[in-house]
Amino acid sequence: MTDAVELHCAEGGDGPALVMLHGLYGSGNNWRGIARSFEAGHRVLRPDLRNHGQSPHCPGMDYRAMAADVVALLEARGIEQADIMGHSMGGKVAMALALTRPDRLRRLMVVDIAPMAYDHEAEHGGLIRAMQAIDLAAAPDRGAVDAQLATEVSHPMIRQFLLTNLQRRGAQWVWRIPLATLAEQLPVIQGWPEGLGTLTERPVRFVHGGASDYVGGAGRAAIARHFPAADVVSYPGVGHWLHAEAPQRFTDELNDFVTQPHP
């Protein structure tokens, strides 16, 4: 395990701590709109996970280490326990934290991911290769980068999400995420650590898209192994990006969960 990374983190509001963890290629800014709904009654933290956003770059993406990053953030902010919600890769970080440091957890919500290994190399490897292939030095503006990316990534929403990582530094465009590291660590990111055990003494809810393939029969079995008391909720017709595709339902779901009586 690598040493804990000091994560960049946006924070707002006051009250019980709520930590929102983003997915692959994302940042804490992904939660900015939804976070506003909770800041009246919660201290909301939106960290950038390692190798994402404004957080440091490092070679390893092991989920135990990434969970330790979040624990270190809680310690640095003087937070004993938090409600933790994570989407996709962030959901795996949240689950790893729950299983390794349940003393730091009050409630856990996991969004469209299960505690298991996946094989989405064709999808994610393709996205990383598409970003790596762009000649940023020859791109006059963001539109030109988008046009190049469109030759390999047809979905506009996915392109716009990836382009949140495009930054201007001096006279040139750069990707703020370390693409070579993400490509190398993709098997680890898609994987799931062995030996993390089970959690039964905290409220846990899994929400997933009915039109997504991330939580099927194998995913539900994996959830039952690690989180046997968890609730599992499906959103019919919704894909992997629940918080973007059904934002009001997702916000209501999260609010219902974090305002339950303290366990």
Describe the fold and architecture.
With 263 residues, this protein is α/β, with parallel strands linked by helices. The protein has 2 domains: 9-118 and 191-258, Alpha/Beta hydrolase fold, catalytic domain (Rossmann fold, 3-Layer(aba) Sandwich); 121-185, no CATH class. The chain is built from 10 helices and 9 strands. The chain has helices at residues 32-36, 63-76, 89-100, 121-133, 142-150, 156-163, 179-190, 217-226, 242-245, 247-258; strands at 9-12, 17-21, 43-47, 82-87, 105-111, 166-169, 172-175, 204-209, 231-235. A 7-stranded mixed beta sheet has the order 1-3-2-4-5-8-9, sandwiched between helices. A two-stranded antiparallel ribbon has the order 6-7. Strand 8 (204-209), helix 8 (217-226) and strand 9 form a beta-alpha-beta unit. Helix 2 (63-76) crosses helix 3 (89-100).
Give, in spatial order, the strands making up the sheet with the most strands.
1-3-2-4-5-8-9
The CATH superfamily of the largest domain is Alpha/Beta hydrolase fold, catalytic domain
Described by the principal axes of the CA atoms, the overall outline is globular
Number of strands: 9
Q: Main beta sheet, described?
A: 7 strands, mixed
CATH architecture label of the largest domain: 3-Layer(aba) Sandwich
> What fraction of the residues are assigned to beta strands by DSSP?
15-25%
Number of helices: 10
| Structure classification | alpha/beta
Rg: 18 Å
What's the level 1 CATH class of the largest domain? Alpha Beta
Give the overall pLDDT as a whole number: 95
Query: Any idea of the CATH topology of the largest domain?
Result: Rossmann fold
Q: Into how many domains do the coordinates divide? A: 2
C-alpha termini separation: 31 Å
The stretches of 5 or more residues where confidence is low (pLDDT under 50) are none
Strand/helix succession = EEHEHEHEHHHEEHEHEHH
Measured as a percent range, the helix fraction is 25-40%
